[in-house]
Each structure stands twice: as C-alpha cells, then as structure tokens.
Amino acid sequence: MSVEDVRGTTAPVLAAEGLTLGYGGDPIVRDLDLEIDEGGFTVIVGPNGCGKSTLLKALGRVNRPVRGRVLLHGTDVRSQRPKAVARRLALLPQNPLAPEGITVRALAARGRFPHHTLLRQWSPEDEEAIARALELTGLSDLAETHVGSLSGGQRQRAWVAMVLAQDSPLLLLDEPTTFLDIAHQYDLLELFAELHREGRTVVAVLHDLAQAARFATRLVMMRGGAVVADGPPEEVVTADRVRAVFGLDCDVIPDPRTGTPLVVPHERAVARKAADRPGVETVRSS
Question: Residue 38 belongs to a domain with what CATH number?
Fold first, then answer.
C-alpha cells in the first residue's frame, strides 16, 4: 500500500529520516520518514504490533535506531544532552513503573529535574508547575498519596501530571488514556487539545479511531511498520482504508457532535455465521 500524504508543508519540529527500528530480530519499522509539524496535534493510529509505540519511543530518544536518525529542531536527537532534550520534549511511555513508596506529588516533581542545574535548584517556579499539573489532572487532593495505592486510572493521571510538570513545548504520549474510564479519557484528551490550542505540539498514539479523528489536526496511519496514510482525519479515515489496515468492514459517517469521522463496524459475528451456512451467500456493503 503506497503512502498517501495530504498534509500541508510547514517546518518540522521533529523528524524521522530513514528510520529502521527493532529489538534484535526482524525490524519492526523499516526506512520510515516522518515530519512532525510545530504546533500540531498529531495522532498515530494502526493495528496492534504495527510499530506505533516503537516509533514514538524512538522519537522520544528512548529507542536507538538500527538505521536512520531522529532530528529535534534539525539536530540529531542522540547528539543532544538528555536534559536539553527533556526541556524541549516530554515522553509519556506505555505502562510506566513508579518507584516503591513514591507519592503523587513526588512523582510529578520528577518532571522538574530537566530544569535544574548546579546554579538553579528548587524554586517557586517548580512549585507552581507541580501545583498546576496536579490541578489539571484532578489529583490535588491525592498529592500525598502513594502512587502504588491508586487505581489504574489515577496512576495514569499521576504520570500525566509528571509530564505536564516538565512543561516542555513538545509532548509525546503513548496511549495516554490507558486504564481510564470513558469520562476521564475525554477529560484528558480535552486537556491535551487545550494545551495544543495554547501552542504545545502534541503527538499521541491512540487505539480509538473516533477519539483520534475528533481531537487530531493530523492522523498518521501505520501498518506493518510503515506509514500508509498521513493527513487530516476526514481524508485518512475512510471505510476502504479501515478495511485494508484493520481488517474491519465498516461505515464511516460524520460524528453528530463534531462532524469528524466516526467508524461504525459491521456485524462481524452475523457475517461469520452467514458465511458458515451451506448455500448462503454473504453480501458485504461497499
């Protein structure tokens, strides 16, 4: 499947050039090129195992490329000091582990470490950033609670608070709504959308196509370690492409609230039962 790119052209804040990524076996991502526009809300979607998280970790300087490079503001990210990168870029990984006994506030405070130097240690600015991050994630009342005693959704919000306290202009978020109930999922996505409107560049990996299409200014769709479509949600999310990439027969209709693409799956169980009956022809909508 060839890459379809319907984006405009702006200077990238982050770029992958000829990126090949893996963990010792066959590469998961091969020869991938991608540019992240400054000020956009980019969402990466695709089926499990397609390389979304592997790519995001490489963009965040966690995964070392087998080949190729990642450029942050035009310079190879691996040639830059980790603290310098962290002041420009914050990464929320998938399923992070908190140190034993750490409180919510102490975890959020770790986001301030990139801003500290020998000459600049703890300051009122750090306190303000932490307080704001806890307020935005709804965790102010749980600031002194041990992270290990929280529910899965509360723990996820604690990690988001750490990323927000880091106060970097570029956010990389790997499945940020994991473990959250649907109300908190939308609360968090609305928060990221607001940060984007305030000028942050946001890149997120999401599974839910409806959420991705609702909040993204740009969708990058992956399959088999490659980008297969790249552009505005209404041009990327089509019934034919969802079928080709996810193996799901569906209709794509406008969301009644936002007008963004909404995927309505066909009845897979009904179709399978019909296909199993002798002499019954299964008819699929186009």
Answer: 3.40.50.300
Question: What would the 3-class secondary structure string for 72-133 be?
Answer: ECCEEHHHCCHHHHHHHEEEECCCCCCCCCCEHHHHHHHHHHHHCCCCCCCCHHHHHHHHHH
Structural domain of 233 = 4-276
Give dist(CA 249, CA 243) in Å, integer.
5
pLDDT tens profile 128-155: 999 999 999 999 999 999 999 999 999 9
Q: What is the pLDDT of residues 191-207, one digit of tens each?
A: 999 999 999 999 999 99
Q: Dump pLDDT digits (tens) for 219-253.
A: 999 999 999 999 999 999 999 999 999 999 999 99
Residues 6+ apart with CB under 8 A from 35: 12, 14, 15, 16
> Is the whole model's pTM more than 0.70, yes or no?
yes
Q: Is-contact 227 3, C-beta < 8 A?
A: yes
Q: Please indicate, yes or no, if residue 179 is contained in any of the structural domains.
A: yes
Q: Which residue in 201, 190, 164, 187 sits closest to 41, CA to CA?
A: 201
Q: Is 215 left (phi over 0), alpha (psi -120 to 50) or beta?
A: alpha
